[in-house]
């Protein structure tokens, strides 16, 4: 750091040398400033009235100069003061400029940087299969409907020909909404156990003919295991018109299964029971893994049970008789299928839980 030397030689050359030394020190110090506070210290060191470098110059150079040298020294000191002040001002400008330029750089958008990639999601496999099933029926002229997930006893059971206390209700593992005892039995709320209540809701809304599919979420008091979940999805179907027969049911479902699983798949219908259909059937497809030869997946039977169906029971039509559903004039078929079950078969998914865990590694495979 520069300290003001005492002058012994007052010759013009010696004075020039002393001045040059001072300026090279001033230069070096001003180049080493990085912040406003550096500059402030620099400013005070040189310009402070008490003990600043210029004050010292005044005392040690000018005041101490012998008479004949005073003029020469005085001229140089005046010049030097002006240059020093200018240099200090310039140093401040430089600091301000560089501070605002680093701020600008930080604010600036660098359009050459790669962007942040936000992956666009894909349809969840359950929704995808549900949409696929719906599309197959839409192509056959079906409309699409929906109904509430919180349903009354009337729509979920009674109007579907499950009389109060009938043992067929036991098969539905129903989750009831609490504190409904004060209401008449048919108005009590529950979580719908199937999409079938929307059959009645649809027929209340429109007279025959009807061709509708109803996708939706259903709930059962079932423990979670590899193939069961308390919340799952179904697609319901209903067709009502004059002269609808079991042949129509078979032909429609056979076509739908070929559309979903490929044209080589076969269907067969097995006698079953549902309160709202008569006759009722379970529809099976030829095993999509072994083509019907028999394997572990189909328990060596060559067939896989896929959905419930049947001809709409006249007792069901009686609940909507006033809306044109006279069972002596019209007939219909209905079916209901589990969406997860079909997705599990289509994509060979090992566990139903994978659909609900939201693990991106699983979901990505459907991208
Ligand atoms: N709702 C039935 C269930 O969840 C499935 C079903 C069977 C629906 C036969 C139908 C049908 O429409 O005709 O177990």
Average per-residue pLDDT, rounded, comes to 92
What is the distance, rounded to the nearest whole angstrom, between the alpha carbons of the first and last residues?
Answer: 69 Å
What count of helical segments does DSSP give?
11
Q: Gyration radius, to the nearest Å?
A: 46 Å
Q: Ions, cofactors, ligands: which are bound?
A: 3,4-dihydroxyphenylalanine
- Look at the structure and give the CATH class of the largest domain: Alpha Beta
CATH topology label of the largest domain: BirA Bifunctional Protein, domain 2
Q: What is the second-level CATH architecture of the largest domain?
A: 2-Layer Sandwich
Strand percentage, roughly?
15-25%
Itemize the secondary structure elements and their pairings.
Blueprint: H1 12-31, H2 36-47, H3 53-63, H4 70-107, H5 125-138, E1 143-144, E2 150-152, H6 153-156, E3 189-191, H7 197-205, E4 210-219, E5 231-241, H8 246-261, E6 267-274, E7 277-286, E8 303-312, H9 314-318, E9 331-338, H10 339-347, H11 360-363
Parallel strand pairs: 1-4
Antiparallel strand pairs: 2-3, 4-5, 5-9, 6-7, 7-8, 8-9
Helix pairs in contact: 1-4, 2-4, 3-4, 5-10
The structure holds 3,4-dihydroxyphenylalanine.
Residues 194, 196, 236, 274, 277, 308-310, 334-336 line the site of 3,4-dihydroxyphenylalanine (DAH).
Q: Mind explaining what this structure looks like?
A:
39% of the residues lie in helices and 18% in strands. It is of the alpha+beta class and 367 residues long. The chain folds into two domains: 96 residues; 242 residues, BirA Bifunctional Protein, domain 2, CATH 3.30.930. Helix 1 runs parallel beside helix 4, helix 2 packs antiparallel against helix 4 and helix 5 crosses helix 10. The structure holds 3,4-dihydroxyphenylalanine. 3,4-dihydroxyphenylalanine (DAH) binds next to strand 8 and strand 9. 3,4-dihydroxyphenylalanine binds next to strand 8 and strand 9.
